[in-house]
Structure formats: C-alpha cells, structure tokens
Amino acid sequence: MATKKIIKFKPNIMKKLKNMGIILVIILGCFIYYRIQINDLKKIGYSEKAATNIFFKWKKEEVLALGKNKTLNKAFESPEYKEKNFDSYSKIKYTDDKYVISNINNLIKRGYTNEEITMILNHGSGEDVREFAKRKKVRYLEEFYSIDYARIKYYDRYVKYMDEAREDEETSVLLVNLDMDKNEYEDPIIIKNFSYTMLVNKHRKLEKNYIPKNLVTINEEDATDKGMKLNRTAYIAFKQMKKAAEKEGYHLLINSAYRSYQDQEEIAATYLDLYGSAYVDKYVLKPGFSEHQTGLSFDVASADTNIFANSDEYKWIVDNCYKFGFIYRFKKEYENMTGIRHEAWHYRYVGKKIAKEIYEKDLSLEEYYAMNL
Ligand SMILES: [Zn+2]
Predict the structure, then answer these.
(1) Is 278 left (phi over 0), alpha (psi -120 to 50) or beta?
(2) Cα 48 to middle of ligand 1, angstroms
(3) pTM of model > 0.90
(4) 361 CA distance to ligand 1 middle (Å)
(5) Distance from the CA of 45 to the center of ligand 1, in angstroms?
(6) Domains along the chain?
(7) Ligand 1 centroid to 246 CA: how many Å?
(8) pLDDT tens digits, residue range 136-169?
C-alpha cells in the first residue's frame, strides 16, 4: 500500500529562509536608499562617479548645501581628492583641464589662497600650472595676474623685464607676451598657419617655403606695376576701398603687395650692394620677417603725388581703411611696439570687425594680438 509522503520543512530551514528574506529586504532597502542619495546628487549636476564618492565619503549633506560645483565634482571624480582640501575645492573656480585637482593640491601646499589659486589656474594651461606649482610661492601674483592676458609661464620674464626696463606691470606683461624682451630676430617664433589675424614681425617669422593660400594677381588698373599678387579676400576689399575713394575724388594704387621669401632675400642683397650692411641691418627686414609674405599687406601709392604721406589719399585712407578691413599698420605712435619706423603707405588686411576695433581703440596689431589672441 502506497503511503502519501508529505514533505515537511524542518523548522530550522523555515527559520533560515525567513532570515534570508529579511536580509534581502534589508539589502534591497539599502540599495534603494543608496540610489536615492546618488540621484539627489546627480539631480544637481554631479556625475555618477563623483556622487558615489561623495556618498561613501559621508559628504552628501555638505555637498548638497553647497549646490552644484564643478570643482567639487572634479575633485570627487579624482583619485587626488584630499579631505583636508574640501573647503578649497568648493571655493576655487573650475578650469577644465586634467591636472586641475592635483594642481590645486600642490598650490595649496605652496601656501596660495583660494583666490590666488583661481587666478593662477586662469592664466595658463594645466601643464603650465603644473610647472608653476613646482616653484616656491612667488611675490608678484596680483600685480601681474590681475591683467587678463598675463601668462603664468612667463612669470620670471615679467619680473626681469619690469626690473631691467623699469616698466610698469601692464607694459611688462604686454611686451613680454610679444617677445619684446628678446633681441630682434633672436629665437623667433615660426608662424606656420595662415589667418587674417596672423602676426609677423621681428620676433615672429615665416619660413622660406611659406606661401600663403589664395594669392591672386592684381589687375593692372589697380597697381603701379604688372604681376603683383595679394590674398584674394584682401584684394576684393582693396577694390571696394579704391572704388569708395574714387567716389570722393581720391586715387589709390597698389605699389607693392605679396613678397615671397626669395623676393625679400633679393631686396636685402640689392640694398646691401647699394648702402652697406649698417643700413640694411637698420632698415631692411631680414627675410621671413616681412608681413608682405602673408599676402595680406600692401603698400599704397597716390596716383597724384610721389610722397604718399603728403597726399590727400593718405588723409583719406587713415580714417577710412578700417571700413574695408584694413589697418594702418606702422603708425608713428606704434614704433615701440612694431619695431618699424613710421610707414604712411603700408596697410594690412585683418577683416572688418577687428580693423574697426583696432581703429577705435587706436591699437597696434601687436597690442591687439597680445591682448586677444
Ligand atoms: Zn609695406
């Protein structure tokens, strides 16, 4: 006779299952609690990684009270996070680079205040700041770095220039940014990329093989000679300017435009034969250092008189060229900046917007460049 087997759990198994259930509920509850905490932080802008670390470092309430803070977010994402620097992270303005947290830690170690650290981070790349943080605390931070365009990596050059040239901080920053603390032609920056705002001068040269794009041949009726070339956009702007000048009775002609590196070599050789080396060193640019190689500059002549500075065209172009995107490049007042003696005849295309700003603020291209680019 078959007997029906009734499976009966032993009481201790039941108990175990019950305990497991309780544990599961607790785990689930903890998980839900954890997700809610993380989501509270994510909701105000913290990343998953930062929020997780904030939670496990028991900083949630403090962080929530501070609200969204990019530097804190980065600090909590970083393995470099230091508990003792929490307050500084929350006060230092964020800059977007991979070294920001280690840089902040190092600058705190050097004794800089939060405001000073914000200032330092603002004036250089992460790499520059990393180098800067290796040195002892510097003396003139506010003096130089309250100037927008001062760069952290030039600190020593600013100090040296200020001492030697007895210039004020602002002038020192401006001139050092332009490499004017170096001798002319010494250790120049090589300019490789074409742009309408490119700066070529005695500290910034173009190489032998540099030929600007979009050179076009200037029409005979616009120039004093055949075969001259200019950047297409600059030439179109010149033609518009010429037309506008003609309407008012002035006659502009291009006297010289693009000059290749080889052209510059020939010019230097010719002047050397004619006037000797003292003259050439003083008045003739070394090959590669002439803005004419950019294709954006031209010398202008008046159709009515030989000396352009005496012409009515000169008076007209000085106050009108900016409307067409040109600047009066080598003004008398800019000699210290440009390193070039006054040239009434030389104009340079930079585009209308910048030409207008340069005209209205009465800046050399060097100053505009140091401040903005
Ligand atoms: Zn010129």
Answers:
(1) alpha
(2) 59
(3) no
(4) 23
(5) 55
(6) 52-177 (no CATH), 189-372 (3.30.1380.10)
(7) 22
(8) 999 999 999 999 999 999 999 999 999 998 889 9
